[in-house]
Amino acid sequence: MHSIIERIEKEIASWTPEAGAEEVGIVRGSGDGIAEIDGLSKAVMSEMVLFDPTFDRTLAEALKDPLPIYGLILNLEEDGVRAVILGDSAKIYEGMLVRRMNRLLSIPVGEELVGRVVNPLGEPVDGKGPVKATEMRPIEREAYGVIDRSSVNAPLHTGIKAVDAMIPIGRGQRELIIGDRGTGKTSIAIDTIINQKNEPVSTRPICIYVAIGQKESKTAKLVAELSARGAMEYSIIVTAPASAPAALQFLAPFAGAAIGEYFMEQGRDALVVYDDLSKQAVAYRQLSLLLRRPPGREAYPGDIFYLHSRLLERAAKLSKEKGGGSLTALPIIETQEGDVSAYIPTNVISITDGQIYLEANLFNKGQRPAINVGISVSRVGSSAQTKAMKKVAGKIKLELAQFRELEAFMQFSSDLDAETKKRIDAGRRMTDVLNQSRGAPMPFEMEAAIIFAATNGYLDSFRPEEIRAIEAKLQEYLYREAGGILMAIKESKEIREGTEKDLRDKLDAFVSRNQSSDD
Amino acid sequence: MIDNYTRLLEAAAEVEDKDASDAAVTKLILHLKSSGRLKMLPQIARELRKVAARRHSFRPFVEVAHLKEAPAALRAANDAGIPAAHASVNHALIHGWRARGRGVLIDRSAKRALLSLYQNITA
């Protein structure tokens, strides 16, 4: 035993460690998740630092808790820097050594993340072991420029009839989902993710859902739902729950964008849902005030617009030379009392390529999704809409807008002429056809067939109140009897003359069968 | 203006000589009196304490695991731009030395190497 100890001591004595000089700072003070650090004069913005808890301890003490705590530099000052603490801020003490990491905040990216739930630093939180990704990417980076992009030309089907028909979304687009709390914003995003299961594997986008400031129970429920529907096979969840430090809530969308960009640069399609950017803005406001940056409107810092514009600008459809991949963004904004003219909603509306506006009134009336088609718009998606959908959904938006006006007028007058009554009945029927419950997205060919039936008068012989039941029957009937027609629409992405004739025959048969059975 | 004020404070904090510092304080008080800003004196004292604390935390120091390593460690630290007059013994380093000064750390201790090894293995 004695000889072993002697041998070890000899080995240690003869060993010469090699280490270069590194720039270090010292914690001057810490509070509210922000550390004031003296020194680090050469540090750069958004650089990662490492709070070293082992420096002042013996090796035995250090081995008990050797994990470093990371920080992110957000303020460069005359004598030092201020950094947000990306971990347990209770472990930071005055005089603690801080090392520069000489790299910007980065997260692991790659296929290994698919099916996983991670935090904004890329650390797994699903208990399935470490993420074995080898590639790291900075979470903040400049968006692609004009030359590297191409116009949006492929549709991203949500599986929601109202959206795909009237507010189509293209791959590479940024479409805002906006509305009060409890109006079904998250449902639209989740249905869109679930619906990607209907896409062929080769064109199926990788879906990234970024949960910002949400209850962990809600995220757990969502993960369970996606798993049960088989959607976790192509999904990644980035979560910064309400209990996470404000810094992580602020970083989460950027982490989601970095993960999505990886797939986009592989020439694949990706979809990222930011749920929601209002909470990210609040987290950033908290950080900015703690960093003593001057407050502006609603106490948000001056660069709050840039925060969202630089994030959403990263959504893109790349040119063929760059691989042709795309990153579609579905940011979500929560409004208060339907006020879309507040600071953050107007900012994000102006940045995005359109918005889906959900209204509490419509929701309470039972309309699902509760989309106000009057002020919902998609600025670039229509050019990516399939021919089939364009053909069947051409006038729906106009007809529904007319119906809404007549509906308001109807409240003042009970005596209506036949033409007006016909239009109102048609509007009611169409509203009911577009009604779709949560968690029931449908393939685009089925959407096209149903909307075809509605716009071509096949449902006119039914009373408006029976439309929902009839639509369910029609779906079942089409799956059972018109599989070939649906397949033809799916493959050609249009309703050709022959297919249209076959579809009409089937619809005629359906109408006569159901009318006779009702009678 | 802020720069000049900071430089003045830093210069005052650096004065080590007792007579010189007394003279500097007297001059400062006279200046404050003449400009009607004597109320600022406690604030100036607070700032000076901060500057002094900052300077203290960044003073050059060299630590060695064993006293016999001190001459070599001091020489190496000096060559690396950390001029320290003496080295203190810190057995927690196990072997080797470390030096810190002017915002730079050179850690050539066995403790650091063993910790890195542990972190690499367990990561």
Low-pLDDT runs of chain B: none
Roughly how many Å apart are the termini of chain B?
Answer: 49 Å
Average the pLDDT over all residues of chain B and give the rounded result.
Answer: 83
Arrangement of strands in the largest sheet of chain B = 2-1-3-4
Description:
- The complex is a heterodimer of chains A (519) and B (123).
- With 519 residues, chain A is α/β, with parallel strands linked by helices.
- Chain A is built from 17 helices and 17 strands.
- In chain A, strands 8, 10, 11, 12, 13, 14, 15, 16 and 17 form a 9-stranded mixed sheet that branches. Chain A has a 6-stranded antiparallel barrel with strand order 1-2-5-4-3-6. Chain A has a two-stranded antiparallel sheet with strand order 7-9.
- In chain A, strand 11, helix 5 and strand 12 form a beta-alpha-beta unit.
- The relative contact order of chain A is 0.11.
- The model of chain A has no long low-confidence stretch (mean pLDDT 91).
- With 123 residues, chain B is an alpha+beta fold.
- Chain B has 2 domains: 57 residues, no CATH class; 62 residues, no CATH class.
- Chain B is built from 5 helices and 4 strands.
- Chain B has a 4-stranded mixed sheet with strand order 2-1-3-4.
- In chain B, strand 1, helix 4 and strand 2 form a beta-alpha-beta unit.
- In chain B, helix 1 crosses helix 3.
- The radius of gyration of chain B is 21 Å and the shape is elongated.
- Classes of the chains: A alpha/beta (519), B alpha+beta (123).
Task: Give a quick precis of the structure.
Helix content of chain A is 39%, strand content 19%. Chain A has helices at residues 2-14, 59-64, 161-166, 185-195, 216-228, 246-265, 277-290, 304-312, 343-351, 360-364, 387-393, 396-410, 418-434, 444-455, 467-481, 483-492, 497-518; strands at 21-31, 34-39, 47-52, 69-76, 80-85, 97-104, 106-109, 117-118, 135-138, 176-179, 206-212, 235-240, 269-275, 316-317, 326-334, 354-358, 377-378.
